[in-house]
Design goal:
The N and C termini lie far apart (49 Å). By secondary structure, this protein is α/β, with parallel strands linked by helices. The protein has two domains: 178 residues, NAD(P)-binding Rossmann-like Domain (Rossmann fold, 3-Layer(aba) Sandwich), CATH 3.40.50.720; 85 residues, N-(1-d-carboxylethyl)-l-norvaline Dehydrogenase, domain 2, CATH 1.10.1040. It has an eight-stranded mixed beta sheet with strand order 3-2-1-4-5-6-7-8, with helices on both faces. It contains eleven helices and eight strands. Strand 1, helix 1 and strand 2 form a beta-alpha-beta unit. The protein is globular. Helix 1 crosses helix 2 and helix 10 packs across helix 11. Bound molecules: acetoacetyl-coenzyme A. Acetoacetyl-coenzyme A binds next to helix 2 and helix 9. It comes from Geodermatophilus sabuli.
Amino acid sequence: MARELTEVGVVGLGTMGAGIAEVMARAGLSVTAVDVDEAAVERGRGHVEQSTGKALARGKLAAEDRDAVLERIRFSTSLEDLAHAELVVEAVPERMELKREIFSALDKICPADTILATNTSSLSVTELSVATGRPSKVIGMHFFNPAPVMKLVEVVRTVVTEPSVVEDVEALAARLGKVDVTIGDKAGFIANALLFGYLNHAVALYENRYATREDIDAAMRLGCGLPMGPLALMDLIGIDTAYEILDTMYKQSRNRLHAPTPVIKQMMTAGLLGRKTGRGFYTYA
Ligand code: CAA
């Protein structure tokens, strides 16, 4: 039978980490949310306040539940505060070395049966698992942006992940109100492997000036029933994150579909990272 997890941790409080902390707290779990310094922690807290505020305004959350959600998240700048977590989700930027350092540190801090999960979109979960002394307790738990809204969690098992760990994470996903799909450890898993070729192609159409950004987005929203056009979605995902995902998939498969369209790298270098910096393909107030 799956373990009922009550104490969880999240490391990295960017858009995804803060969203994951919110989802966990909304499901009644006690969350320790960690980032490197006070400024990062405050940004994370801001994300949660803004998102729960929006949920309140849309009638998805009652005022007293919002207060309870915020109270269930303990913010911290120290990984040591994860010493009692039964599961930790890492959601720091997509850099293998940084993630390996965090996994190795968590391995020393957390009890031997703590599950160490990564929200990576495309890096190898297996490579992360061997940065710890407990590869069988390491798993991918991949949420989608915005985490409080998107229903899917991809559960990524490596060749050494214990079946009971997969079961525990699937049961947790259900408690979070999510639907899980399970996949082996390959770059892009299911959704990104299929999505990013399309997004990259849309950027190439735009770069080659075949159509305006508005028309590309309108075509896919109004012609194909997608909630958002591809360029608006790139801005939501973050141009840097999108570049890293494409680059990793391209390096793994050498499939030209995933060779990042040059303007993506240029936008990244120029700091046009999408919604989070106020400008990407579109400009945000
Ligand atoms: N908490 C709870 N519910 C919320 C919420 C919040 N913070 N914000 C919005 N919602 C709810 C709204 O109440 C609304 O619900 P109903 O339909 O029941 O009324 C619904 O979400 C949509 O909200 P809005 O119409 O107000 O639109 P929005 O602008 O707030 O959000 C969107 C729209 C959810 C982002 C939608 O455009 C969408 O689904 N876009 C596509 C997103 C997508 O494809 N994400 C995946 C990206 S890929 C990825 O993440 C993987 C990776 O590794 C990079």
